[in-house]
């Protein structure tokens, strides 16, 4: 496609359309959601007339003919190049992005929170933490940013991407139309009810919960049942070993770990499945859920992160992780033919707005301003206001810590109180301000639902990202876990308040030192709030200098 001069009536300036639109990804894998998306976008871009290549640091052998080394991109790029940067894990590509010519945009798939790998895989945990640092660093090098769900777009907004929006996930439905492997299908279609899970065996997918639910299902409802797990599992990692050990401990029959399967074997799994089960605690989108819907398999999924958004009201989304309760959902789907047919029909309706042509058109419309060089209107950044982080405020607004947090904010002009909304809000596009008796309170979406009996505030990856990116003074008000994960990044301008029964760990104590206060039962909340507001104000001005 030749460069075309386009008139942007909104801005009143001429812009130039690019002729080449390339993609950058840290690892191009065969068969995973990110890799499939990258390849499908390349085909869309070429179909629209652009020259388009994929650049990566690493790639699977099956992808070697589809990729170019990432190190070559700065040399290949020119002023009329555009680069779509896919981000989902540590890439170490920010310096490369910074020096490459042409315009750049971010496509955010979400990063799994570090907490899922703590104590399990130190290398991956460090990679997740580094990936969120890179997310902040990339902000200065891109003109546009999109996420593949509202859940992920909220985290972009928290990280300071002021014009982040949602890009439709372009699923290549034709790729699922592969005849089932006859040998595997004959093996598993033996009269058993087959429960299917597809995905990587990593802690965030909670395969151990899948095992517990299946065991309850087999013992309470359907003795003739089988669990099919399409995903590599071995004794090579602590998590894999723990899952295998749990299977031995629980003792269910007919649990089949299929390992990595090809397209025909995967088709056989779906063709024989009674239900698809997901107990994942973190999804930036959730392609296997839609794949199950496309293949006519009813879905039961735990409603964490972007799962409710992906489900779109179809299937059965549960807010409970109790194995017996979830097993009951699997049982009713098997026993009630009318309900099963209703669920499958609703899932089919869910896919209707995601057909190939509609999604391709929406992707093209979303990318057009970037491809034409139209910069979004950036809101002017405000002052580096103080942020009081009190995750439990929404859960217990009248608790002493919540009253202290509100009192500090009320004493500091421009300050805001950050908390985690107790209920799941899957379509919340960005952290939203509400007024609580005049106090500005920003609510962040929780990563997963919380039990009604729990008094603890749920975790929120977008809240933690917002704290890491905060430039003004930060007060951790009872935010023990948030501080543990973020205090090192904001140490120079952070304070903390804790109650004796919820004392912070040694690392936070070391980082904050004398700026760590204790809220005792007999503490004068107003007096402490006054002192903290004074310290935050002075500390913020010192930090700004």
TrEMBL record:
Chain intervals with Low complexity compositional bias: 447-462
Protein's UniProt keywords contain Lipoprotein: no
Record keywords, A-Z: Transferase
Region annotation Disordered: residue ranges? 433-464
Coiled-coil zones: none
Q: Which SUPFAM superfamilies match?
A: UDP-Glycosyltransferase/glycogen phosphorylase
Question: Domain of life of the organism in this record?
Answer: Bacteria
Tell me where in this chain the Glycosyl transferase family domain is found: 195-342
Matching entries from Pfam families are given as: Glycos_transf_1
- Record's protein name: Glycosyltransferase
Q: What is the protein's species of origin?
A: Corallococcus praedator
